[in-house]
Model the fold of this input.
Amino acid sequence: GSSLMGFLNLIMGLVAAVLVATGIKNEDPEEKTNKQPNVEIVEPTKKIEPKLDFEILKNKSFLLLKSKYTEPKKITPKGLSELNYDKYKNIRFLPEQSLWRKEGSPFQLQFLHPGYIYNHDIIIYELIDNKYKIIPYNKSMFDFTALDFKEKLPDSFGYSGFKVHYPINTEEHTDEFLVFQGATYFRAVSANQQYGLSARGLATNTGMNYAEDFPVFKEFWVDKPSKNSDFITIYALMDGKSAVGAFQFKAYPGKTTMIHVKATITLRKKVDRLGIAPLTSMYWYGENSETPHYGSYPEVHDSDGLLILNGDKNWIWRPMANPKKPTVNSFHVDKLSGFGLLQRDREFSSYEDEEMNYHQRPGAWVVPVGDWGKGSVQTYRNPTKRDSDDNIGAFWVPDVSPEVGKPYDFEYKIYWIHENPLDLNLGRTIATRVKLNPDEPKNKLYQIDFKGERLDSIENLDDVEGVVTGSQNAEISDIQIIKIEESNKWRLSFKFKNKTPATPAELTAYLKSGDSILTENWTYTVE
Done:
């Protein structure tokens, strides 16, 4: 069955870790020349605070390899673990209890309580000048009054995650812009956005014909930012059945929030599909779908497509679709310059949902730091019949997988964008529509709308050519282009017939003028 079905039907483990005391070495450099033989003089020792930086964190991850991975123990009382999502949300963190709030820091931390599917605790440390101390669980930080909850909570409880606040929308107050909770999941927003898709630290064996295993961030170190800092640094220690890892996140909130991720992972065992920089999102239906009769809104999705930049100029756009069965698609790339799941359609009228505000969901654009070598961007799509399933994923899979036991480094920046990456200057796909003709049930009419600066300068329709190609079973005919002046867009249409309907067909299309490419490459799988 599917292993990427979202938070709602995934029980994700988080580990209650043990704090390792730092060994004391060379406590006093002065040699005690007056020591008597066989008599140890114990001097009063100064309390040593444990230290942390990325190198120390990497060593902590290597230490995890010395022992076998153990499944995290569930620590949550039944009354909390059996809560549904709506009831769980009633456990409110009291904003006045936010860490660093009293000091007037622009960055503030709020904590998430165990409960619902988040029924393991994690350890969170406050890091100041490379020295850290644990942030202990404090029940009085939470308001349980909206819950009918009578059970006594364990004394040695922890948190299930945390949120970071910053004055991202207005100087008047802080807003949440980043959250870590569940497995290696994290989410972020830019100014004037609402949470949508998620990112993960690592994906191991997503979309295989056996269950995916989910590594977990079991300890976090949050570096206290200075008063005038415009970023916050968070370190995370990852453990799992298949891999361990050290992660550093530098988060810059703003008009476009950016998170700089630096990681070293080490495999415990061979992984069949290793996903780097994984993204997870939801696509139920859109303008390219037949709207389900129970869908009361025109479109329902957090992301409407996958964008890839191969090399400097080759942009590939893949509209999302809700598949009939679990489906993996792979796009081989020689030099990855970027990939991401985007929410391009920003019109409220496309969704008509004033509660969910799908038109304000972020896109996530991943840009490698350094050369990632050859590999493929892979998408995993799972059928869904509701909006609460995270049923689509995208990640980078290197051609050469790291060796078991050998550290593997990677680094990237993830931009939580509004519509498109800034360097996309080609015409872009703004809509994909599929129309069925009742008189010719085997023929489908495809309409792809393109828009963009590169197209605006073209006056003459005859200067534009539509290029449509497909797999061997694709029969393509009647390619036409029109310019729709009212909305300043170009529409490419063609008829398609699958010669072997049992096998999915692949389609690609773009516009050009002479030798000049005018648009990104549109690609699609017809089931």
